[in-house]
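Lecture notes, unit on protein representations.

Consider one protein chain, 538 amino acids long.
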Amino acid sequence: MDHKESFNAEGIGKYYHIKNLKKDLPAGVVVFLVALPLCLGIALASGAPLFSGILAGIIGGIVVASFSGSQLSVSGPAAGLTVIVLNAITELGAFDIFLLAIFIAGIMQVILGILKAGTIGNYFPNSVILGMLAAIGIILVLKQIPHALGYQGNFEVEHVFSAANSGQTLAAISAALAKINIGAVIIAVTSMLVLVFWPKFKKLALIPAPLMVVVLGVLMAQFFSGTTFSLLPNHLVQIPTVSSFADFKALFVAPDFSQITNPQVWTVAITIAIVASLETLLSLEAVDKIDPIKRVSPTNRELVAQGIGNSVAGLLGALPMTAVIVRSSANVNSGARTKISAIFHGFLLILAVLVFPGIINQIPLACLAAILISVGCKLAKISLFEKMWKDGKDQFFPFMITVLAVVFTDLLMGVGIGLAVAIIFLLRTNYRNPYFYSVDQSNNSDLIKIKLAQEVSFLNKGTIQYTLANIPRNKSVVIDGSHSLFIDKDVLAAIYDFEKNAKAKKIKVELVNIKPHYELPELKELIIKTQHENVSTT
């Protein structure tokens, strides 16, 4: 890696170079185009003012990204919180009372980060995280089909991918098939073709394909005006129009602090803090997996950043937010390098409201649907399913069950079901041999020996990552797997990532008897063989 493209997890980068703006700024434009309809759709589905969704995107882009240690994660209003928000506003009786709960939830998240509760994200296996990503991709595609077909019905819940509206999604697709708008279909198909073929031409690739899709979409919508292909108003983006500072000021809502002793407010705050923190940690882990530079984001710092963001959201009148995988994935796929892209997308959301509401309201939802469908297809690509199948049943079944559970229930419940299945597979082997590892540094102060035990599961990933991350600079490390009958794939990934990135800290790494892959049947045979040899010796 070029030294000018080396980064750390704490800031924009020790060697940040201005040339990264060529990637960060276009990626910020793409994230903005993806975030805008999502912010509006989630606000609608939450029963909240439209501006509260956009404001959450602005705060997530500027405030959270500024405090976050993640370079590629993007924060904003989360679909996974929609049902919670809708029910909370209904139960509390007023939006300003709900804002107080958001403010308190943000303070709780800051406290969780200070207490170092972010490490819980290390204990989710790869199969479950990848299953979550694939499920979100599938649901994202399904949710955008009505827009691509020019559905003329109610779009309130179309951008939300929680299982509670999975029936509505199928109903919307069915209705869209019955009443197709040819103009929207032409725009969607053209947009998909541009997204596929535009990057293949190097000279044209200087302009981001999604940006070109939006420009073409606006031009085609104008060209179709007055013809049989003409689009209806609900086929276009609709954001609030601000004509004066007074109008802009009126969009902000302050929390009702007189309800600070209301027990319902505290119940809602605790719920938001827990759910938002879990979704953030899962999304952060997922984004780190697809980061081409393979940086590791500080989870505790992320909780603090999210807490600051939600506290500001509660004070100004925005929806609660989390790190969100859809926008983050779009950020990664667009070639972003640092958090500048997320911050830039936040400023673009401000401009959309203040300066360009008329232009933004001319963008067809069909071309935005094409962008989101493209993101969804990349998250749920066929090759991922093939890879998980080849990795074995202990990886494929938790992965596949997570996919199905997230699609047919909701994000958190689906991940919980997938995690339970992963634990069942783990217990099949883990009960035979307790896990331990030892660090030997007695003979040579510059040499650290880490000996792994017979069975190393994904539950030990957090401990091993912590140990490896805290090895001082200029040391020599020997990781010995001579006694290991089984090492989980997540742990292997952590070890190989450490070996790959150790040069940056001038650490010499030697792997002893650590294989790139371990099979469960092999483990069983080795255990039986070992037991037989022990009996024979006795």
